[in-house]
Design goal:
Strand 7 and strand 8 form a beta hairpin. This protein has a 6-stranded mixed β-sheet with strand order 5-2-6-1-8-7, sandwiched between helices. Strands 3-4 form a two-stranded parallel ribbon. Helix 1 crosses helix 3 and helix 4 crosses helix 8. With about 280 residues, it is of the alpha/beta class. It contains 8 helices and 8 strands.
């Protein structure tokens, strides 16, 4: 597949739980629809991106930090899973030049930023990426969240990173539209649907120039703090939306009854095949 030269869309994906891709045989089909949505992303792009920049919910630093390793290691940031999931490898290369460019763009927006040459892939990156690009032949760089979880800051960083879209870089916010591990199953059905309805309205039917303010005020949404007791899995969305500008939104994955009752969604910002 040729490397794209068009402006790419951005995505916010719900990345599932733990190293789920490596436990498909034990999941009784729970992840089939999520996996299908991730496999479809390369088709939507049309051509292979130069690189993927992932903002993972599972990496937080005091300042925005960019993974700069040429050969990123693995970070097994989960517990209680089968032994084999602590030995899986996703061997995509890093791209230090892109990491430095991202750092400079973030700094140009007025935020401190640094590089981390030791950081590896956490499951917020490798679990969905092994489905999207199973050959691990697309370079990947991760960007951390910034402690404090300020939505306006993460939206601004997304805007700063938007020029990378013109260079064939796919920007992916990897989190979950609903993330409350203490409330799953049937008891999650009501609050997850309420919050997802608000999210759909905010991202799809609200005018693009108004959606950022709604996202800044996300805690006013129905069931907001039930859906996200801590907003680390929501903040990657802010970066993806900031980088999207006024591009229109499409829901590319939606499921009700996930984990026995959770409503969950993923979104693309921008058109298929670039612009």
């Amino acid at each position: 597949m040729p490397v794209t030269t068009e402006r790419l869309p951005t995505y916010f994906i719900s990345h599932g739980g733990g190293p789920w891709r490596y436990m498909m045989a034990q999941s009784n089909g729970m992840y089939d629809r999520l996996a299908q949505s991730l496999r479809d992303m390369p088709r939507q792009l049309g051509e292979r991106p130069k690189a993927v920049l992932v903002i993972s919910a599972h990496w937080e630093e005091r300042e925005f930090t960019v993974m700069a390793a040429e050969r990123p290691p693995m970070v097994y940031d989960y517990a209680g899973f089968p032994e084999h999931t602590y030995h899986v490898q996703y061997l995509a290369p890093g791209l230090p030049a892109l990491a430095e460019q991202a750092r400079q763009l973030i700094q140009s927006a007025g935020f401190s930023a640094r590089l981390d040459a030791q950081r590896g892939f956490d499951h917020g990156s490798f679990a969905p990426l092994v489905v999207m690009y199973p050959l691990a032949d697309v370079p990947v760089v991760q960007l951390s969240l910034r402690a404090g979880y300020d939505p306006a800051e993460h939206l601004a960083v997304g805007r700063a990173l938007a020029p990378l879209r013109e260079q064939g870089v796919l920007i992916v916010g990897s989190g979950l539209s609903y993330d409350n591990t203490r409330r799953v199953g049937p008891s999650a059905a009501g609050p997850s649907m309420q919050f997802d309805d608000w999210l759909q309205q905010t991202l799809i039917t609200t005018e693009p120039h108004q959606r950022e303010q709604r996202l800044i005020d996300w805690q006013d949404a129905p069931a907001a703090r039930v859906a996200h007791p801590q907003e680390d899995h929501l903040l990657p969305l802010m970066v993806a939306v900031g980088a999207a500008g006024h591009d229109e939104t499409v829901c590319v994955y939606h499921e009700e009854g996930f984990f026995g009752g959770v409503t969950v969604s993923s979104f693309r910002f921008g058109q298929e095949g670039g612009v």
